[in-house]
Task: inverse folding
């Protein structure tokens, strides 16, 4: 399927990361004009740039966020799709989490969803003025519903994003702006691999491949997600096919959270 | 917390969570009637009324309420505990399995509520036994899981339709050490290891006890929870708060 976002202008924060990059690639294929915002043009993964327009942006910085919107306003005059995909995780219990780390993860995951959304609103209203609803897609997580051990602050930020998503949907639906959150489970990204090789993950010293195999086995679908799986749903939520979808939290996790903990022996 | 002067019906009080609830409500001062399909258990306290009955049958449900009323006066409290499980995926489930599970868990709850509500005095309280399995799926328990989803939805409907006169809530137990859970573990290839693994998945590092659920039910039927209705309370030692995928368990 191509052309689902033909003529749309989209901004993806974290657009050079594992999942953000896949979203940009999909949006480009669907015919959108895509802005990828990230700390650097190669992102944390060192990927080569793609055809999306790069905006250097720290989503915790109000001035940079306004500047990013000013640039899109000058170049395109409107925004149809905003994807708040920038995020980090900190692998600690609350006891191990410093106040500095706590503030940092809230700044990126929560404030970093708030600021781009706040300053994109005037552009999103212009996008919606064309008769097609504008779409904001936030990044929650299944960790916003049930806890992974040793990820306390991360879980809390994702719960905040879920609540913010519903609030934004209620406040701005009448302006033609839909707001949804996508809540991924385990997606094979550098962030996940870091979690499973991190000292605090309790992965038991097994090789990364062994751990990943065990992770896959716990899923009803017997596989982890890929960034492309996430991009598929983001694309649908961004498109006009999802025009009646708003205020919802879309869990995409291979069935992981549908089950009672699985008997292994 | 006292239930002095109150009368309670607890279905399925022969054993397990039902029996623990019978004893807890008795200890709190309530008159208690209970029922089961078999004969009166020898170890059931003398003061407890036993009605041999099958809640899946509407006439039996009526009979339980009438017998309770004859002995103690109108029933204030109903705990719908009677239930059965069948450990099968959907494609192996027979018509008889369906009738048994849906009969006891769904129709039984329906029958008892329908018989109880008209005679219950102002301030009556119903507690239904749901399950975490009504929210997240236990493998190979398809019809059981579905039956508990029914109970959760019915709980909200009764609360809405019959408030303010009657309150209705549900408890959702997790793995409570009863014969029913033992039957679940018997499906494991290595039941002993499965049991150890399961314990490790609980924040409380133990399985539930029937008394854990009975304490929650006591609160929900007492006046202490007078503003609580239409809710389903999970009592699972933290099991379903955690991801099914806990790296520490590899």
Result:
């Amino acid at each position: 399927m191509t052309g689902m976002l033909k003529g749309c202008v989209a901004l993806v924060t974290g657009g050079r990361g594992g999942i953000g990059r896949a979203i940009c690639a999909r949006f480009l294929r669907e015919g959108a004009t895509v802005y990828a915002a990230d700390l650097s043009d190669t992102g944390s993964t060192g990927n080569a740039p793609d055809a999306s327009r790069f905006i250097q942006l720290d989503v915790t910085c109000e001035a940079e966020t306004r500047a990013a919107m000013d640039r899109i306003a000058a170049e395109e005059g409107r925004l149809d799709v905003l994807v708040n995909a920038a995020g980090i995780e900190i692998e600690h219990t609350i006891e191990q989490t410093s106040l500095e780390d706590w503030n940092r993860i809230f700044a990126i995951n929560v404030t970093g969803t708030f600021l781009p959304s706040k300053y994109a609103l005037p552009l999103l209203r212009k996008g919606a003025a064309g008769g097609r609803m504008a779409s904001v897609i936030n990044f929650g997580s299944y960790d916003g519903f049930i806890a992974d051990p040793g990820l306390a602050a991360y879980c809390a930020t994702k719960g905040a994003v879920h609540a913010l998503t519903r609030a934004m949907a209620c406040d701005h639906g009448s302006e033609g702006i839909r707001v949804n959150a996508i809540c991924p489970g385990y997606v094979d990204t550098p962030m996940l691999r870091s979690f499973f090789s991190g000292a605090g993950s309790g992965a038991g010293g097994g090789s990364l491949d062994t751990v990943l195999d065990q992770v896959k086995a716990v899923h009803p679908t017997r596989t982890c997600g890929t960034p492309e799986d996430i991009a598929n749903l983001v694309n649908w939520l961004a498109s006009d096919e999802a025009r009646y979808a708003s205020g919802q939290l879309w869990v995409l996790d291979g069935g992981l959270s549908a089950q009672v903990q699985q008997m292994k022996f | 917390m006292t239930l002095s002067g109150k009368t309670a019906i607890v279905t399925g009080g022969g054993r397990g969570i039902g029996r623990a609830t019978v004893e807890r409500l008795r200890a709190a001062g309530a008159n208690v009637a209970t029922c089961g399909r078999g004969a009166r258990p020898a170890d059931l306290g003398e003061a407890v009324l036993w009605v041999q009955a099958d809640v899946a049958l509407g006439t039996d449900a009526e009979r339980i309420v009438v017998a309770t009323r004859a002995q103690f006066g109108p029933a204030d409290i109903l705990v719908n505990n009677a239930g059965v499980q069948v450990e099968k995926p959907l494609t192996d489930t027979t018509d008889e399995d369906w009738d048994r599970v849906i009969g006891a868990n769904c129709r039984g709850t329906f029958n008892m509520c329908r018989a109880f509500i008209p005679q219950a005095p102002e301030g009556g309280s119903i507690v239904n036994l749901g399950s975490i399995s009504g929210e997240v799926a236990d493998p190979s328990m398809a019809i059981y899981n579905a039956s508990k989803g029914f109970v959760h939805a019915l709980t909200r409907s009764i609360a809405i339709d019959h408030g303010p006169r009657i309150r209705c809530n549900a408890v959702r137990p997790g793995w409570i050490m009863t014969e029913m859970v033992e039957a679940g573990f018997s499906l494991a290839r290595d039941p002993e290891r499965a049991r150890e693994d399961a314990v490790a998945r609980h924040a409380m590092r133990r399985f539930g006890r029937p008394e854990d659920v009975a304490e929650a039910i006591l609160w929900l039927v007492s006046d202490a929870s007078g503003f609580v209705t239409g809710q389903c309370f999970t009592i699972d030692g933290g099991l379903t708060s955690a991801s099914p995928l806990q790296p520490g368990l590899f």
The CA atoms of residues 81 and 157 of chain A lie 22 Å apart. Chain A has one domain: 9-186+226-258.
